[in-house]
Amino acid sequence: MTDIYNEARWIALSKLFACEAKKADELLEYFGGMEELFTASEDEIMSLDILKPGTAKELYETIKSDVMAQAQRISCKGIDFYSREHPLFPKGLFRIDPVPVGLFVKGNLPGEDKRAVAVVGSRTSSNYGRSSCSLFCNAFVEAGIDVISGMALGIDAAAHESVLQAGGPGKTYAVLGCGVDLVYPRTNRLIYDKLVERGGVISEFYPGTEPKSYNFPIRNRIIAGLSDAVLAIEAGSRSGTLITVGCALDQGKEVFALPGRITDKLSEGCNKLISLGANPALDPYDTVERIKKLPPRDSGERTVKKYDKSALNASAKDVYDNREAARRIGADEARKVYLSLSVEPKCIDEIADESGFEVGKLLEILVSLELEGFAKQAGPCMYVQCIPR
Amino acid sequence: MVSVVFSAAVGGIEAQIINVEADVSDGLPVFNMVGYLSSEVKEAKDRVRTSIKNSGISLKPKHITVNLSPANLRKTGTGFDLPVAVSILAAYELIPQDILDGSVVVGELSLEGRIKRISGILPIVLAARDKGFKRVIVPRENVLEGAVVSDIEIVGISSLGELMSLIMNGEELPVTDPVKVVLDDEKIYAEDFSEVSGQLLARRAVEIAVSGMHNIILSGPPGAGKTMLAKRIPTIMPMLSFDESVELSRIYSIAGLLDEDRYILTRRPFCAPHHTATIPSLIGGGAKATPGAVSLSHNGVLFLDELPEFGRETIESLRQPLEDRKVNISRMNASYTYPAGFMLVASMNPCPCGFYPDRTKCTCSPMSIERYKHRISRPILDRIDIFVNVEKTDFKDICDGGSGEGSCSIRKRIETVRQLQLKRYATEKIRFNSQLTGGMVDKYCVLNEKCRKIMEKAYDALQLSARGYHRILKVARTIADMGGFESIMEEHLREAIGYRGFM
């Protein structure tokens, strides 16, 4: 039954039990249905031993309140709600624990029949992490795979941003740890606006819920639940990214991790994942192929790691082909400077030492590279190498 | 009998001649002083009476009235002790009035009759000369400061007794020889740019900044040498001219910062207020409206170390002096204008710990880095033309220690570029490229077709603001001037874009 009145009741319930969907389950089971719960008498509610007296009182006030008006207010804000009884509620989420009461959505929900990958990583990120992230995301866009992430700083933002910038059919969705009407962190305002337009912002929390730190680990299970696989880009040894990966493993999803240098703090978590058996994300195109071969995410079939030996021999496309990019640069001088850049920020004095240019001239060349998209300023007079699309 | 002695009061960096009149007549023995006096001037009464007595002169008890005119101008400072004493002695006819005509007298008295140093001698002597006086009698300790000014006799006296005996014996007052001010001595600065090893980019950026008087931010990890570089910026500015030196010394004179060792400023100033500095200490103010750091660094460098640590309001108070190159300080009695034509040099770390973007060392969260950057007020960032990174020096460069180019040859180049600008802006009210306003940018920074294309691309790709656009053109103008180019070329523009802000 998905009539409007019922949906409104689900909204009311999700306001009460956002973080404890299990409680809602127990209640519905106890009363034997939504209709019965909402027509229960005060005594019945107050005598419930599964609820604390405070919550019981709130529940009673809720079932007596005008739930339709509340639902109206939410839809006026441009927020859609999909309860778990709603036909469009993502099937994959029935396999996570606990199943959310419902989802608030600004924009759209990811397509059920489309492949989706969760790209996650720490908020503190290195340039290596961000640029690899965009390599992978570009490959996902090309292959028509949705990118799901958490709209946090660092890798999350980089993932959304690279999909949004790639244009085309690429879609990206964010699962928030606060209400969908709040932009947190505020620096991601632009990403948020574009997400609403070109994908969706999703949350199980009632609109207006503040971004509390304990909400974020909870929403990670939804990120994993909406995806076919998880790609961990950068994670410290105790990063929240590992929670998402944990959820994905619980749900039987494939995990990919971007390898890093063993001395890098930010790669500790990912390297560890690989050593524990996660797929090393060595090549975006290979990763895409593997994701495409996964069974549908709501089939319930656990994915089994299969190693395709032939893939090792196949001549794959170069992952990070800066040589090819360098060939696109006309001037010899600029090409020389370009090749002495790296994905980690380098200061001009250092580049000057390597390339032998006088600093004024060098800065001039770097700016011309920057204007063409071959380099980026990472700080005052610090540059990193880029590959323009 | 009524006597008149000329003295002077300092207000702002100007001095005004004050007539000190004394009348001695029969009646009850009282000592009255009138003429809108501040308390330190009123207190002169007791100092004067005692020091006259202790100089071995006994005065008959009479009715003494002293008036300081013009009476509508508030008299402050301790320099009126000596003129009041001299004026009374003249009224008692112990000093002939004709000696005093054409002389300006200033000085503070101690109880035993010694004449002590006062601040503001330079503006007083300049005002006396401009008003046509032929002689200024000053405390001996201040004599060098006065002797810098030509075309006027400076007499240094150490005690009231000495002055009396000179006059009573009919001797000539001892005129101090004018001091020759040496401003172009190569060894004037203790520091030299050759001590900076490596730092090629920062050197280049600093040279551009000084050439066009652009404000600059040096960013870099702790210990990279930001302060060392900043301290050497005055050494590559053109040497002070005599007029500039006098203008600057005036400010130091009224701030009471001159002494016998430093009676005139021969070096361009380098002021580095601490980040806990208050607005009055930076801009000037206080009860006496003393000049602040912006004025004390006039014609030189105002260095704000650790810019994000400064209070937002403190930093924003720099907007007006940065814009007008002078500050107005209004107090109840008057408003004063002090020059404040400084070059702003600021240093900052790229993040709170200082090592960003070196992720192996930096421990800051992305949030704290953003917060750190946002601590700097935007309006001030808008007025800074050049941002440059100062990296830690390589071991190789440290070993070569001091092999870099010296201040002298850099200064020569900069002087040429400054001359070029002076010539170009002869008809405008500005002197440097950094002062170009919007309209003037269009007139003096003409872009050819290729340059326009670059700017168009940069404007979109780098999301420049209109102000940022103008800043780049101004810096490009300076870079072109340094290369001796009539018009801005693409390479100048691209280099200028490289120095744009990063926040």
CATH architecture of the largest domain in chain B: 3-Layer(aba) Sandwich
CATH superfamily of the largest domain in chain B: P-loop containing nucleotide triphosphate hydrolases
Placed side by side, the strands forming the largest sheet of chain A appear as: 1-2-6-5-4-3-7-8-9
- Determine the CATH topology of the largest domain in chain A: Rossmann fold
CATH fold-level assignment of the largest domain in chain B: Rossmann fold
Second rung of CATH, namely the architecture of the largest domain in chain A? 3-Layer(aba) Sandwich
Q: Cα-atom Rg of chain B, whole angstroms?
A: 28 Å
* Derived structural class of chain B: alpha/beta
Query: What form of chain B results from the Cα inertia axes?
Result: elongated
The share of residues in helices of chain A is 40-55%
N- and C-termini, Cα separation of chain A: 48 Å
What is the name of the CATH class of the largest domain in chain B? Alpha Beta
The number of domains of chain A: 3
- The overall strand count of chain B is 18
Give the overall average pLDDT of chain B: 89
**Quaternary structure classification:** heterodimer
Kindly report the greatest chain-chain contact and the residue count on each side. A-B, 40 and 37 residues
